[in-house]
Amino acid sequence: MSRFYSLASVPRLHHEDIHIHVRRMPYGAVSGWIHETLRAGEAVDISESLGECSYLPGHPEQGLLLMGTGCGLAPLYGIILDALTRGHQGAVRLYHAASTRRACI
Questions:
Q1: How far apart are CA 84 and CA 57, in angstroms?
Q2: Beta-bridge partners for 94
Q3: Which residues partner with 30 through β-bridges?
Q4: Three-state SS for 28?
Q5: Residue 71 φ then ψ, to 5°
Q6: Tens-place pLDDT, residues 30-68
Q7: Are 15 and 22 in contact (CB under 8 A)?
Q8: Has this prediction a pTM greater than 0.70?
């Protein structure tokens, strides 16, 4: 079984940990398995990155405006980490939205 998830980390070397955010979905086969069975340190197979959501260096003084909903914070978190690691100096604004107050917990 495969699913698409966003990275919440920016591993630069193969031995670094990879972090993902996975919301537990009712009757979700993969999200249920991740939350109930998978344990820290266990190996899983992942494919190469298929997205283009990343920090573009070159203007470290320029502000960043990042917006996401639900578990959409994962790639934004990775962008912020990458920007700060590369010495970004501009303001970083992160906005998060949810359909209900409970969705933010």
A1: 11
A2: 66
A3: none
A4: coil
A5: -80, 10
A6: 889 989 999 988 888 877 767 677 788 899 999 999 998
A7: no
A8: no
